[in-house]
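Example 3.2
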Amino acid sequence: MLSRAAREADFIKRMILAQGRPVQSIERGNQRRTYRQSIELPIAVEIAGLPAPVYGTLINISETGCRLRSLILIDRDRDVSFELKRPGNSALRLRGKVVSRSTPPAGGGYEYGVTFKMTNSEREALNKEIQELQRREAAARADLRPATIGTTATANAKQRRGSVRTLVGFPVRFRIPGRPAITAEANDVSTGGLRLITEEKLELGTMVELRFTLPNSVLWVYPAAEERTEITPFGPRRIRIPDNRRPFEEMIVHGRVVSRFAPNRDREVYGVQFTDIDGYQREEVARFTHAVQLAKLRSAE
């Protein structure tokens, strides 16, 4: 039977491994055996037992696992999967299990350690893609624009309502290049786009700049931020519940008019696809749509 000191050393070692850092002083020579590539990539995570994907950001990845960040709470030991987009190739479907969860010292949300479950051929394909990520990162150092921006529109254009949408309305201001801003209404928002309701007539393909603040009225469904005690194998530990009730800030997102719907009360209705939404904005939209879903479930009880 292991001594208390040995158990504590093993626990600390596993926590450091889950956070993506090599173990140095705990066990001599026990360095991380696989290279971990840092990355900031928005992903849609499918979770066993949940009907809709959870949106988050892939922080780093290796051939054995990854670390991701999300505003949504995911249980440990839950099976998860997501697609790793590859420019010019089909996406890699990665499957694994959540093995750790932590709250970052700053900002809201959670960080998760995931261990992959894959075949040798899948692992080889992932290893090649990580090497390609390294190559693209080196090639892009002279250009500060993220490489994922150019592929976002293509990926979203092919989505088949893969993201959760809500019909809660809110005001929005949009501007076409070279014209003054126009006040309108929006609803049916998701991480892929929104529905724009306006008196203006727009051509399909028109690029627009959108400014809006998501409604705070639904955030009451989230628990208040607090610190509480969680029981671990080595005794109680204080953990922090993130502040998911914090008010939304104004978002500035660019998009393209991709569809036209039947008029609504003499106003034009368009589908706008986001073209440059970043990881943080995706997580904020996901926080909003998740709150709307929770509110509907509670009102139906």
